[in-house]
Design goal:
The protein is of the alpha/beta class. The chain is built from four helices and four strands. Strands 2-1-3-4 form a four-stranded parallel sheet, with helices on both faces. It is elongated, with a radius of gyration of 23 Å. It starts with 9 loop residues before the first strand and ends in a 13-residue tail after the last helix.
Length: about 150
């Protein structure tokens, strides 16, 4: 809430780390959609071109920390953990550090391209449904009349 007591949208920064300008635009748009779906307000887009550089040596990341310190943003939306840190453990450490400062770090890409994991019962149910659908002939052999 602001001083008048009205609710404000949560201000966030979008953080992209890639040298490819076309990819940066696409990934920024994806992160913007992710933020909008949560009713967050993207107020800054920050891009670093060398994601192999240590995080604290990236000019964009240092700028994000300044935005957090000044209260301009409350969180950071990035596309994937690899934008922030190569090993997953390092990404989690950065998330924890930000949480300890009262901020948040999230990734818009929440899953890999791997198929979703299913229990054996779910897999069996899907096969049953697929088998039943394979034998389905519509509303009838005459093109759909209901008798």
């Amino acid at each position: 809430m602001d001083v008048t007591g009205t609710l404000r949208r949560v201000p966030v920064a979008l953080y992209i780390a890639t040298a490819d300008q076309d990819a940066a635009e696409l990934l920024t748009d994806y992160c913007r959609q992710y933020a909008a779906a949560r009713d967050w307000q993207p107020v800054q887009t920050v891009t670093d071109t060398d994601r192999q550089a240590p995080l604290m040596e990236r000019t964009g990341w240092v700028r994000l920390l300044a935005l957090l310190s000044h209260g301009s943003i409350r969180g950071v939306v990035t596309y994937s953990p690899a934008m922030v840190a190569a090993p997953q453990g390092e990404y989690e450490a950065v998330r924890t550090l930000m949480r300890d400062r009262g901020a948040f770090l999230v990734t818009a890409r929440t899953t890999t391209n791997a198929p979703p994991s299913r229990t054996p019962a779910q897999t069996a149910r899907r096969h049953s449904l697929a088998d039943a659908a394979a034998g389905y002939e519509g509303c009838g052999a005459d093109g759909g009349s209901l008798r």
